[in-house]
Structures are given as C-alpha cells and as structure tokens.
Design brief:
The complex is a heterodimer of chains A (221) and B (113). Chain A is an alpha/beta fold. In chain A, 33% of the residues lie in helices and 21% in strands. Chain A contains seven helices and eight strands. By secondary structure, chain B is an alpha+beta fold. Chain B has a single domain, classed as hypothetical protein PF0899 fold. Chain B is 25% helix and 32% strand. The longest helix of chain B is centred in the N-terminal third of the chain and has 17 residues. The radius of gyration of chain B is 18 Å and the shape is elongated. Classes of the chains: A alpha/beta (221), B alpha+beta (113). Chains A and B meet through strand 1 and helix 6 of A and helix 1, strand 5 and strand 6 of B.
C-alpha cells in the first residue's frame, strides 16, 4: 500500500555530528577554537603569527595547520615555541571534522586556552565543513578584488569576522572597501570587520581586542 | 561540490524512516534545497543513483523543491529576493540585512510501499 511519510529532517552530514563532538571536547578542556579560512596567499599564516605574538603573554596557544603538503607552517610556529600539529591532506581541499578529531589528541588540550586552526588555503570549500571551532574568521586580501563576496556568496557566510588584509596595497588596486564590506556584512549579520595589514601591523589591535572578548566570553562561560 | 556525504545522510534517513514504518520500498523522496545552501541538485542525483543501488531506495525519484534566497532588511523592513548580483537592501541600501530563506537542505517526506 503506497503512502507518504512526513519526515522534515535537516540533512546534516556525518561531518556536522563529528564537528559537534570536537566542540564538546574543546568545551570540556576549556579550549577556545578558532578557524582561519582564506584563499591561498591571503595572509592566514602572517595574521596567525601576529596573533600569536599579541596573545601569548595572556593565553596558552596551540595551532593546527592544514596544507596539502609540507610542514612549513607548523615548523614556523614550533620555532616560536607554539605547539603545532600539521595535517597534510594529500589532495583534499579543506580540513574537515574527522581530520581535526585526528589531530586533537596530539595536543595538550587541557593546558591550552586557545587553539587556532589554519585551514587549507581555499576560498570555496572550507566554509562547507564545520570543524567544531567556536568561531570562524575569513581573511580576504586587497589583491583578490572587492567583488568576491558577490560572486561567491555561500563561501562568505557563516563567519563571525572578516579581516581585509594587505590594506597597505590599497593605493595600487581598484578596491572599494565600502562595497566589499557591505557584501560581507549582508551575508553575516553582526559581522566584525577589520581592515588590516599583517605586514605593517595597521588595524590589528582592533582585531585582537575583538578576539580577546570572544575568547574570554567562551572560557568564562 | 561535496554532496557525497550529504547523499549518504539522505539515504540513512530514508532507509531508517522506511524501516520504522514497515515499508519495503521507497519510491520517491521530497527534498527542499535553498538557493544559498551550496547543494547542487545534479550532484545529489549523481551520488544518489550510485549509493541507492541494492537498497530499498533504489530507483526512488528525487523531487527537488528549490527555495529562492530571501533577505529581510533590519533597517527598513523590506523583504527581497536575491537576484544573484546584489546583496544589500534595494530600498534603502543598508547592509543590515538577514537571510530569512535560502539556507535549507531538508528531507521533507518519503513515498513508500
């Protein structure tokens, strides 16, 4: 006998459930997780290094680095005395919750206040894969152009902050900051927007102040 | 682009629901897909054809109900459909807008025998 069964269930992939498990672990160890996403070369590692420099006197930091190959980024952080785990995905274009779950046991999470996950350099895919971090930050850069939020709206959603990096290059590009800012704000209600230069340091203090507020709100909850 | 894990979930939900209802075959599945969900119908169909083989869901027709992306402006109250190009409010230009529809990826119902 044919019939229709109502279901009305959101389709979450197994990744979403695993991301929740990662988040539960980070909550148990009282570790604030942050996901840095961006196109290759936008400045994730540069911003991360500046962030580490600014925060390390107040928070115990660690990092998870995602790249297709090499340990360049993790090595750099370990040189700075920051525990870092490198995930080499081989060919996968994004980090996912499974990979992060595999990396977490390699870090002394009970002793870590802030875990920064530097995702694989890729504009398109990472936004689709929750990791379980408390916040996500997208790093855009001036040379990429001001129309990208309009061309890739889905990929600019789901972040709590956007950094516009390389503002020291604004004199050399046709980049309308207001047009760009409105695009990312329309896609993310309540977004925090920070024009910065990881090279000169301009604008970073405002980002660090926001980040400290986010970290404290989670750690003190 | 990465629809495979989502299709695995559709199959899991469908098979579990059908089994609980004592049904032996799934003949159709109604899915709601929002315009800004990043889910592509063709990719879902592609993986579905492969994964459903040999299961009670094999041959089930996927019916996609597409919802356009709709924003509401918190500044002036205007609601507008996404035109694929503009994001800010067409009435007042504000960026203080909220997506009220268009994020969905939902299994609404199954037809079974």
């Amino acid at each position: 006998m044919a019939k229709t069964i109502p279901v009305v269930e959101n389709i979450l992939s197994a990744n979403d459930r695993l991301a929740q498990a990662n988040r539960d672990l980070l909550d148990r160890t009282r570790t604030f997780g942050l996901n840095f996403m961006a196109s290759p070369g936008a400045g994730k590692t540069s911003v991360l290094l500046r962030t580490v420099e600014a925060l390390r006197s107040d928070y115990r930091l660690a990092a998870v680095e995602g790249d297709l190959a090499s340990t360049i980024d993790a090595d750099r952080l370990m040189q700075e005395g920051i525990p870092a785990v490198q995930i080499n995905t081989g060919g996968t274009c994004h980090l996912d919750a499974v990979m992060l779950q595999g990396a977490l046991p390699n870090l002394p999470l009970e002793e870590i206040d802030v875990l920064i996950v530097e995702n694989v350099g890729n504009l398109i895919c990472p936004a689709n894969f929750a990791l379980g971090t408390h916040r996500s930050v997208l790093i855009a850069s001036v040379p990429e152009g001001d129309d990208k939020p309009y061309k890739y709206p889905v990929m600019y959603r789901g972040v709590q902050a956007v950094l516009l990096n390389k503002i020291d290059l604004l004199p050399y590009f046709e980049f309308d900051v207001d047009y760009f800012r409105k695009g990312v704000e329309a896609l993310n209600p309540g977004l925090a927007f920070f024009p910065v230069s990881a090279k000169t340091g301009e604008g970073l203090e405002a980002f660090f102040a926001w980040l400290r507020g986010q970290i404290d709100a989670v750690l003190e909850a | 682009m990465h629809e495979l894990p989502f299709v695995q979930s559709v199959l899991e939900i469908a098979l579990r629901t059908a089994a609980e209802a004592g049904a032996t075959r799934i003949t159709a599945i109604d899915l709601t897909v929002g315009q800004l969900s990043s889910i592509v119908d063709d990719a879902v169909q592609f993986y579905w054809d492969i994964l459903s083989k040999g299961t009670p869901a094999e041959g089930a027709q996927l019916r996609f109900h597409r919802l356009p992306a709709v924003f509401r402006c918190e500044a002036c109250g205007r609601e507008y459909t996404y035109d694929g190009e503009h994001l800010t409010c067409p009435q007042c230009g504000s960026a203080r807008v909220r997506l009220i529809q268009g994020d969905e990826f939902r299994l609404d119902s199954l037809d079974v025998t």
